[in-house]
Amino acid sequence: xxxxVLVINSGSSSLKYQVVDADDGTALAVGLVERIGxxxxxxxxxxxxxxxxxxxxxxxHAAAMAAMAQAFAGYGPELADAGLVAVGHRVVQGGEAxxxxxxxxxxxxxxxxxLSDLAPLHNPANAAGIRVAMAQFxxxxxxxxxxxxxxxxxxxxxHTYALDRKIAAAHRIxxxxxxxxxxxxxxxxxxxxxxxxxxxxxxIVLHLGNGASACAVRGGISVDTSMGLTPLEGLVMGTRTGDxxxxxxxxxxxxAGMDIDAIDDVFNKRSGVLGLSGRQDMRDLVxxxxxxxxxxxxALEVYCYRLRKYLGAYAAVLGRVDAVxxxxxxxxxxxxxxxxxxxxxxxLGIELDPEANQVRSSEPRDIATPGSRVxxxxxxxNEELEIARQALEVVDSRG
Length: 399
Ligand code: ADP
Known about the structure:
By secondary structure, this protein is of the alpha/beta class.
């Protein structure tokens, strides 16, 4: 029997959805409702190789969910006959409450909402999506899959900030890490690609999309990750600073008279490679750097240098590294970024094969030289499939 999962990623102004066949990994339908709560709402729905785009009026998440249901009814597949056995919801912040995916009941939903102070942009929107989906599909089990859960194994030595411990405890301040669904999927796929058991395999995963994070995975378990209390920390990203001296905040407040919201906006939305070069898309950045644009060249160098520093740090954390794994939009597609990140790391046993690095493919592949002690892999991530699989695991474990 085919078993399919409706995967829902409900953001503050968008609703992404997929019907995923958890057995063969295919997506039967992929959709996006945009501009929830604003004017000019739009739905796109792709199924059977056809993309349908319509204008929709979506004042809230309930309207977005209704628009999604209408798209399934109009363009297919018919949801009632799609073999759905669960709905899997992406939830950004699970705090210390959720070390794994869980079936959603009223208590789980309350806990997700209670974690909103840690993720004010995400958890309320995730919860809104869960509520309306549970009303729309009351007979299916709903499962929450958390971005943070994979990192709850990070030990105190790595997740503790050297901050006044009473303040940290009172406000639940620690490193949580994000992109956990992707790091879990990719680290497991890397072990499978190498023909090894996950619990015998040490990898450093570089998830490089618009947001970017590194994860040190020892024996299938996350032992350190670069994002922290929020997704701002760590690597240089499309629009985020990544690591920066926290005193820059005090400096801007005192000398530039900026308030906290303005600084938040600069750090999260107007920094990273965009802030350095005026370009957020890695393709544009690389093109501009190759054409001699100095700001673009420096942005690319800063981006790759930060990656090298994290690789060195995580090599020290892990002791033995079997593979460095690149994933997500930039990691899967940008040969110049991969080359820049790995330049000069031969002493760590990491040797990139320049020709293999240039090959374009959507398949998992090894781009290290034959003699490289550490393998260098490109593994396409698939967060929706991972959510679908985890949802099924939760449903199955209940018998
Ligand atoms: P998100 O974090 O939004 O899920 P993705 O994983 O889709 O992001 O990655 C988006 C990034 O991937 C963009 O910055 C884009 O520049 C980059 N990207 C996509 N395709 C390519 C490509 N062919 N070459 C270089 N970068 C690419």
